[in-house]
Amino acid sequence: MKSARPDSQGHFGPYGGIFVPETLMEPLRELTRVYKVAQKDPAFKKELDYYLREYVGRPSPLWFAQRMTAQLGGPKIYLKREDLNHTGAHKINNVVGQALLARRLGKTRLIAETGAGQHGVATATAAALFGMECTVYMGKVDMERQALNVFRMESLGAKVVAVTAGQQTLKEAINEAMRDWVSNLRNTHYVLGTAFGPHPYPMIVRDFQSVIGKEARKQILKAEGRLPAAVIACVGGGSNAIGIFSAFIKDEGVRLIGVEAGGLGIVPGKHAARFAGGKVGVLQGTKSYVLQDDDGQILLTHSVSAGLDYASVGPEHAMLHDTGRAEYTYIEDADAVAGFDQLAQWEGILPALESSHAIAWVVKNAGQFAKNDIVIINVSGRGDKDVQQIAEWKKGQSTK
Ligand SMILES: *Cc1c(COP(=O)(O)O)cnc(C)c1O
Questions:
Q1: Closest Cα to atom 4 of ligand 1
Q2: What sign results for the dihedral spanned by CA atoms 312, 314, 317, 318?
Q3: Same-domain status, 116 and 238
Q4: 49-68, pLDDT tens digit by residue?
Q5: In a domain, 4, yes or no
Q6: What is the per-residue pLDDT for 297?
Q7: Shared domain check, 167 and 40
Q8: From ligand 1's centre to the CA of 114, what distance in Å?
C-alpha cells in the first residue's frame, strides 16, 4: 500500500491539503496516525484481506468482453467486474477498510454521506457486519430519487437523515455529516465515500481501492502476457478511477482515461465535467478543480447518474490532469444511456449508469486503438439501482 504521494500534509502537487475548522484537525490527525500504524501491521492486512475475500467476494473477475470486442472490431476489451462485489459496487472495498480502522480507533458508530445511496448502503452493511451503530445523511431530493436504497439502508438497521438545506443533495449531506462528526467525535468515525475531502481521506480511500488495480494488472498479465494500451474509468469523486489507475501509473505506455459526466453538454449548471468547465478552488476540505462562477459560488451540476453529479473532484486526479499522466474527458447523458443498453445486450451485464460513461467512451473511441490493443474498462457497479431512472429518462426522450 505504499505510494510517494501525498506529502505529510496531504498535498498532491498544488492540490489536496486540509481546509477544515480547528475542531476537525485533531480527529483527522488521529485517523492519519492510526492508519499509518495499521498500514505497517501485517495483522491489519490479513484482516482486511479476509473480509475482502470471504465477505466482499474478491478478487473480482476480469472478463474478456468477446461480443463487445467483435461488435466494435477491436480493440480487445476487458471488463473489471466491480459490479459483482457484495452490495453491487466498488464502494464496499473502502468501507470495509475504514470500518476496520474505526474499530482500531475504538469507535462504535459509523456515519456517512450519500448521493445515489450506494455508499450509504455499503456503510450500513459494514455497520451491520461489525455490530456498529450507523447514521447516513442524504439530501431530501436524493432520498426521493433513490427510494430503493433508502429502504435497503433502513433494512440494514441504519438511520437515514433527510438533509433539507440548499439543493438538498450530496454537497449538503457532506456538510451535515461533518457537523455530526464534530459533535460526536468520542464514539463516531466518519466514513467518507470517495477519494476526496481533507487529508488523509483521499490517500486512505485510494489505498483501499487500489486492490482493483492490483488485481486487474495481475489478471491481464496472466491472460495476455502484456499490459493494456489503456485503462478507462468513470470519475465522480474519483475513487474507482484512482483505485484502478494506481497500479498502472508507473507503466508509462498505459493510457489512463477518466470519464466525467457531460450531462446535457458543457454549459454551466448542466454537467459535472470539472476538468472541462471547472477552475481551481477549495471545496469541502480540499483544493482541486471546482465548478464555480466568477465569484466563487458553486455551480449547480447535472448528470443522469447521481454518482457522478458533484461539483469537485479528488485532488490526486487534479494533479494527474495537470501533469498529463492521466487524460480526462466526458460523456453526455444520452451516450451513457446508450452505453448501458449496449453492454446489456452485447454481454448480458447491466452496468451502473456511472460505469456506462466509461463503456460509452470506448464505444465512441474504439477507432483510436489498434485491433490487437487491449483496453480495460472498470465496471464500477451494477445497474439494477438505475433501471427506474433509465425508464423515466427514455420516457422523457420519447415525449420530446
Ligand atoms: C459512487 C459511484 C461512482 C462514483 O464515485 P467514484 O468515487 O468516482 O468512484 C461510480 N460508480 C458507481 C457504481 C458508484 O456507486
A1: 236
A2: positive
A3: no
A4: 999 999 999 999 999 999 99
A5: no
A6: 94
A7: yes
A8: 11
Residues of the chain with pLDDT > 90, as a percent, come to 93
Q: Tell whether 81 and 214 lie within a shared domain.
A: yes
Instruction: From 312, 380, 387, give the residue whose CB has the most ligand 1 atoms within 8 Å, as the site to mutate.
Output: 380
Q: Are 231 and 326 in contact (CB under 8 A)?
A: no
> How far does residue 103's CA lie from ligand 1's centre (Å)?
25
pLDDT, position 167: 85
Same-domain check for residues 69 and 120: no
pTM above 0.90, yes or no: yes
Grouping H, G, I as helix, E, B as strand and the rest as coil, residue 286 is: strand
Tell me the three cell numbers of residue 84: 459483482
Q: Kindly report the protein residue whose alpha carbon is nearest to atom 2 of ligand 1.
A: 307
User: Per residue in 329-357, pLDDT tens?
Assistant: 999 999 999 999 999 999 999 999 999 99
For residues 307 and 184, membership in a common domain is answered with no
Domain membership of residue 5 (yes or no) is: no
Q: Is residue 99 part of a domain?
A: yes
Query: What nine digits make up the cell of 394?
Result: 427514455
Name the residue of 145, 153, 201, 240 to mutate for ligand 1: max ligand atoms within 8 A of Cβ: 240
pLDDT digits (tens, 9 = 90+) for 93-135: 999 999 999 999 999 999 999 998 999 999 999 999 999 999 9
Amino acid symbol at 353 = L
Which CATH number goes with the domain that contains 16?
Answer: 3.40.50.1100
Q: Which domain covers residue 241, as residue numbers?
A: 57-88+210-398
* 293 and 224 share one domain: yes
In a domain, 1, yes or no: no
Q: Give Rg (Cα) of the chain.
A: 20
Asked if pLDDT for residue 1 goes beyond 50, the answer is no
Pocket of ligand 1 (CB under 6 A): 89, 91, 116, 118-119, 194, 234-241, 307-308, 352, 354-355, 380-381
Q: Are the C-beta atoms of 324 and 353 separated by less than 8 Å?
A: no
Which atom of ligand 1 is least distant from the CA of 239? 7
**Structural domain ending residue among the three candidates 201, 236, 254:** 201
Catalytic residue, chosen from 113, 172, 316, 347, is 113
Does 41 have pLDDT greater than 60? yes
Question: For residues 379-395, b (16+ Cβ closer than 10 Å) or e, as one string?
Answer: bbbbbebbeebbeebee
